[in-house]
Structures are given as C-alpha cells and as structure tokens.
Design goal:
two-stranded parallel ribbon; 8 helices; Rossmann fold; globular
Length: 161
C-alpha cells in the first residue's frame, strides 16, 4: 500500500512497483473518478474494499475518509511518502503546469484541474491531521512501514527490488 502527501510521486512509484512485481495496480484517484468524492462515500468505500479484498495488489492514494483502515489491515507493507505542506503545494502547482504545457497524462488518473479551493484546505489543514491518524493506524496494526522523503529514496527502493 502506498500513501502519503499530495504530489509526492505516489502514483508513478506505484505503477513502476506493480510492473516490477507483476501485480495489479489500483489507483484510488482513478477508482474515484466517476463519483462525487464528498457525497458518494459508501459507494467509493465499497469499491475500495472490493479491490483491497483481492489476493495481491499495489494500491496508491489516500481516501482514508472512505475506507478508514481497511487497506492498512490488508496490506503486507505500507510505503509512506512524506512532504511538508509547502512542498506538496508547490509540487502540485508544478505538476499541473508541467502536464498542461507538455500534454502528458498524469499517472493514476489524477485530475487535470488545480482545484485550489480544495487542495489548499486539504494540503495545509486536512492532510497534516490525517497523516498523524494514518501513521497511528499503521502502528496499531503493526504493519511494516517504509518512509520515503524524496525521489532519490524512492528510486533507491525501486532499484533494490
């Protein structure tokens, strides 16, 4: 299971990892694309549970408001991407501009919209609280945790597999 701060490379990392391990990839952004993320919580929760109930997978994203700790319980390993709110915000803006200028599709089905009214609140207010909650759940369920602090660490981990 791969989770962590906004715009830290989770989906790109997950895609490469899934390919290396020959496992199916589940991008939560893509899974939620056809739903209203604030209103369709029960439907999204069920889709996440259905996917995470399968025998083997690589899943990336957050969505803990929708599935609480189900993915953590099912995961063999949690890879957690860390970033300060300011870094996440800057990377979100940069990623948006990069994809708009190059026309390159974002991995994992993330939206092309900046959605600043949502992302500012999420990055600076919501995520810091959820980050603590997620780390507590990982510890509670005694899951092995790998923290990734930058692209160099992510690349090193992928090369070691």
């Amino acid at each position: 299971m791969i989770t962590g701060a906004v715009a830290t490379g989770k989906s790109t990392f997950a895609s490469i990892l899934a390919n290396k391990l020959s496992l199916p990839i589940i991008h939560l952004d893509a899974l939620q694309r056809d739903f209203d993320r604030d209103k369709d919580l029960a439907e999204i929760r069920q889709r996440i549970i259905d996917e995470a109930s399968k025998d083997a997978w690589v899943i990336d994203g957050n969505a803990f408001r929708k599935d609480l700790d189900f993915r953590i319980v099912r995961a063999d390993l949690v890879i957690f991407f860390e970033s300060s709110p300011a870094q996440s915000f800057a990377k979100h803006i940069f990623r948006h501009l990069h994809h708009k200028l190059t026309g390159k599709q974002k991995p994992g089905g993330t939206s092309d919209s900046l959605r600043l009214n949502w992302f500012i609140k999420f990055i600076f207010l919501d995520w810091p609280k959820r980050e603590k909650e997620v780390l507590q759940l990982i510890e509670l369920h005694q899951k092995k945790l790998i923290r990734i602090r930058n692209r160099k660490e992510a690349k090193s981990l992928l090369e070691s597999i």
